[in-house]
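Model it.
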Amino acid sequence: MTRCFIIGHPVAHSRSPIIHGHWLAEHGLDGSYERVDVPPDAVAAFLDRIRSGEFAGGNVTVPNKEAVLPLLDHVSETARRMGAVNTIWMEDGKLHGDNTDAFGFLAHLDDRVPGWDARTASALILGAGGAARAVVHGLVSRGVGRIILVNRSMARAEDLAAEFGAGVEARGRSEAAALVATSDLIVNTTSLGMQGQPPLDLDLTGLRPGTIVDDIVYVPLETALLAEARARGGLPVDGLGMLLHQAIPGFERWFGVRPEVTPALRARLEADIPLR
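Modeled.
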């Protein structure tokens, strides 16, 4: 039996086992996918268990996405650019790592708003952490010409913008409302608006009808940001799809079958998540 995992600390909240368990059953595969609570100081010892053959690979979530990177034998260019790994596997006796967050973000946008990249000249990104890095990486790869970062810490936004160079810039929070009116795509990459977190403070008064508003938060499924965007004629994109699509490459590597994000799978996840 092929055993796989997700490691994090804590990890009991992860819904990844629902996704991979669904695909294992759908394809009739002899495999398993389990949650393993691994604090950062125990990551190296856990990776030895993979090298010994106990696991074929798995996913990595906070706070271990950065901790595993220097401990792997080979890391993809994408993961190095993001400074974090979320998918690992054994191949030719070596432990490999990749980051599929940008893939998941783009795949979900492609699914929900086909042709979005052809109509997106300017994007407004809220946040400057790891998720923002993945989103910017994805948008740059699709040729979005103007990407503006707005973050609580201006210095952090400036640092991230500098890493990507021309076409990516940082602006102050006081400019966010005005930037809403000139953006074709708005993405919240922060945890603000998540259940149990403070609300996201963003004035959508100037939102143009047809503007895509993407919130990577998926608990609740429809955040206050998405609800207001919908009411103002925007095109809301929830965060659940990014979670679903980012799981595809890992499953294919571990089990040899490329799965699909189907309505049945999405419905199964939705049933486990509060709508509002």
